[in-house]
Amino acid sequence: MPAMLKLKSFILKSRVIQSPMAACTDLAYRLLSRSYGLEFCFLEMVSAESLIRRNEGAHELMKTVPEDKPLGAQLVGCRPEAMGEAAAMVEAMGYDLLDLNLGCPVPKIAGQGAGSALLERPEECRKIFEAVVKNVKNIPVTVKMRLGVKDGSGTEAAKVARIAEECGVSAVSVHGRTRVQGYSGTADYHAIRKVKEAVSIPVIGNGDVLSGEDAKRMIEITGCDGVMIGRGGLGNPWLFKNVERVLEGKASLPEATPLEKKEALLKHLDLEIQHRDERSVLFYMRRIACWYFKNLPGVAEFRGAINTCESLPTLQQLIENFPITSQTPL
């Protein structure tokens, strides 16, 4: 039997989780990933301050449909009162899990003292955890963090993880890089293990999982209880199920063919059209489409064409006309 993840009373059959990613994990992305076998998804991160102020943008990020379940929300912020109030709102909206962002390294977030910047202020983290756990009655609360701000040893993350556990947080996920690294270098799985050894709650590993073998190696080194996949799933909805197969001891599936990638992209486009206005779809697909055709011959020309595309029929035609010279990955 495949291993499960138990977070409070919430049980996941799969140990493979999709990471929340700003401007990536929208409703269409989640629905597409689920259609390829992913069980649990996260929204994009939402600002606690925006949510409690009933900001229209925050509610747009939280758009969902009944088939988009089970689903977690992620809050970012640094004011305990706002995080607690927003947490209560998230639970009332019917989400299955609430995650707190202590991992975002971008200046817009960390520069305001939120995201990964909180890792060097553990007592402020404690106040946030206490406020959130106090305001959430039934769903599990988790925390996603990096190894530290500058220190990549895992010491800062381990300290914050212990505080999270003391405050009643159900699990932590750890990206094996520091804030200053951003997405450069490689994820340090040995440092994630340091966090795993510091707490008794589940620890989920994150960083550089691009295949089932990567996930297997992560679990072997870290001892973590699950795997969180972020950038590796962009344009690769097959990855989540493939990782699950390898973790269950099954053979890895062949890489998707160029034709299969085109078909998945057209399906992604259709989902975006169902849930966004035309202008938003055109803008959004300029990034999305290139995820699928990365490293394939003709992608540079394709990128140039979609960047000047002004209608959905033309966009669909550009995708359908993308040259497929082989049915095997290049």
What would you say about this model in short?
The chain has 330 residues and is an alpha/beta fold. The chain has 14 helices and 10 strands.
Named at the architecture level, the CATH assignment of the largest domain is Alpha-Beta Barrel
Low-pLDDT residue intervals, each spanning 5 or more residues: none
End-to-end span in angstroms?
35 Å
Shape: globular
**Might you state the CATH topology name of the largest domain?**
TIM Barrel
Overall average pLDDT = 95
The CATH C-level name of the largest domain is Alpha Beta
User: At the fourth CATH level, what is the homologous superfamily of the largest domain?
Assistant: Aldolase class I
User: What would you report as the Rg, rounded to the nearest angstrom?
Assistant: 20 Å
**Secondary structure: helix percent:** 40-55%
Tell me the number of helical segments per DSSP (H or I, 4 or more residues long).
14
What's the number of extended β-strand segments? 10
Q: Strands of the biggest beta sheet: in what spatial order?
A: 3-10-9-8-7-6-5-4
Judged by helices, strands and strand pairing, the structural class is alpha/beta
Order of helices and strands: EEEHEHHEHEHHEHEHEHEHHHHH
Taking the sheet with the most strands, its summary is: 8 strands, parallel
Total domain count: 2
Strand content: 5-15%
Characterization of this structure:
The protein is of the alpha/beta class and about 325 residues long. It folds into two domains: about 240 residues, TIM Barrel, CATH 3.20.20; about 60 residues, Orthogonal Bundle (Non-ribosomal Peptide Synthetase Peptidyl Carrier Protein, Chain A), CATH 1.10.1200.80. Helix content is about 45%, strand content about 15%. It has 14 helices and ten strands. The strands form two sheets. The protein has an eight-stranded parallel sheet. Strands 1-2 form a two-stranded antiparallel sheet. Strand 9, helix 9 and strand 10 form a beta-alpha-beta unit. Helix 6 packs parallel to helix 7, helix 11 runs antiparallel to helix 12 and helix 12 runs antiparallel to helix 13. The protein is globular. The model has no long low-confidence stretch (mean pLDDT about 95).
